[in-house]
Write a structure and sequence with these properties.
- This protein is an alpha/beta fold.
- It is 44% helix and 15% strand.
- An eight-stranded mixed sheet has the order 3-2-1-4-5-6-7-8, sandwiched between helices.
- 41% of the residues are buried.
């Protein structure tokens, strides 16, 4: 694959990473992929402890003892989030990579969905600025292709993914990135096989019919596994410039090039 980012900006070997929503699915695959690249330690977080404990057992079998630790974390709590940061820093001396991956689909509880998907990422970014500055660190926030093409049955979820992309581009602006020495980037997965029907049944949607139609639409579009998103994320960590947005779809990593605003404006009248 031709690389548009030929200069490696971070070598993951010997580094420490925190992956929110890392006990299952895409987050767990991200931790696994980083450890395969020589990451020193992956801290995975979630709020269902049995999933986290099973994930650690799975990772340990593959990568050996002491390479992965689970932390209980509800990203809607700034106090919990900061406590996890401080616990890791007290053990490891710092955090080099933060993957703000935790997210939910729940249109019925749209305020909770907003708090997890948008505010949870915002909390992670603020903590990165507080605790990860001047380490040549990076933050990758998980968005979705719904940030480009809103999902018709998921208005709240789509809005949250637009927000994640916008705040990541702002945090990743060269002005801020130069000050903090942290790169902020976005990975936006396409339809990915994560058992979404079990995690977000139709009852989580605005109504049962919308839920049924959305799940049918989404499940039929799935043509890649979490491993593809994880592999793409590792590339982004190594080579992605701050503020960049990347899509992983159909088992391909694609970089997004945003047009200049002036190029898609049409003058109507003088006022």
């Amino acid at each position: 694959m031709a690389s548009s980012e030929p200069n490696q900006l971070l070598d993951v070997k010997g580094k420490v990473a925190l992956v929110t929503g890392g006990a299952t699915g895409i987050g767990l695959a991200m931790a696994d992929a980083l450890l395969s690249e020589g990451l020193k330690k992956a801290y995975i977080s979630g709020n269902i402890d049995k999933d986290g404990e099973e994930a650690v057992r799975e990772i340990t079998k593959k990568h050996g003892e002491g390479r992965c630790t689970y932390k209980h974390l509800d990203v809607t709590s700034m106090e919990q989030f900061e406590d996890v940061f401080n616990e890791i820093i007290s053990i490891e001396g710092g955090i080099d990579i933060l993957l703000n991956n935790a997210g939910i689909v729940n249109e019925k509880k749209w305020e909770l969905q907003t708090d997890v998907n948008i505010n949870g990422v915002m909390r992670g970014c603020h903590l990165a600025l507080k605790y990860m500055a001047n380490r040549n660190a990076c933050v990758v926030n998980t968005s979705s292709i719904a940030c480009f093409d809103p999902a018709p049955y998921l208005p709240g979820y789509s809005a949250s993914k637009f927000a994640i992309t916008g705040l990541s581009r702002a945090f990743g602006d060269p002005i801020l990135s130069k000050e903090s020495n942290i790169r902020f980037m976005v990975v936006a997965p396409g339809a990915t096989k994560t058992g979404i029907g079990n995690i977000t049944p139709s009852s989580y949607h605005f109504n049962e019919e919308w839920g049924r139609l959305n799940l049918e639409r989404f499940i039929s579009a799935q043509d890649q596994g979490p491993e593809a998103v994880a592999k793409g994320t590792v590339y982004i960590i190594k080579y992605g410039t701050s503020g960049s947005v990347w899509v992983v779809e159909h088992n391909q990593l694609l970089r997004v090039t945003y047009p200049k605003r002036e190029s898609y404006q049409t003058k109507i009248i003088d006022l």
